[in-house]
Amino acid sequence: MQATETSRFLICANLGLLVLYPIAWFAPLMRAGFLPLFSLNEISVITGLQSLWKSDVFLALVVTVFALFAPYLKTILLALLHFGLLSQRALPALHIMGKLAMADIFLIAVYITLAKGIGIGRIETAWGLYLFTVLILSSILISWRSKQSSEVAPD
Length: 155
Hints:
Blueprint: H1 3-26, E1 30-33, E2 41-43, H2 45-55, H3 57-82, H4 91-100, H5 103-116, E3 122-125, H6 127-152
């Protein structure tokens, strides 16, 4: 693939993240139930945050900023960089933004919860967990490839 084809692919993939992130936030990550005989409730990023807002506002604010806003803002800034509306000098800031984006940490926490279970209930994974995983890994890969492309390309 040539450099222009690669950059077009990165641009399209990054713009796809802007559309797919909100879908992943509302998609069911898992279904959880108290006892095996009762029906399962679907849990998404948004429903998890709603529950958190009811119990601990400060923690909910921190998780909302770092799990929703930071990754989305990073994706927007990367799109601006791809379209030449943001200077290449912003790459270090994007790198920091990627570290602040807690989506991957949130995902790891979800996996740990799934692996451990809650003992008296049951948890089943749902399609949103896989979508969320692919989006996070894609975001990391797009950022990495964009950084590589900018190091090769002249300013």
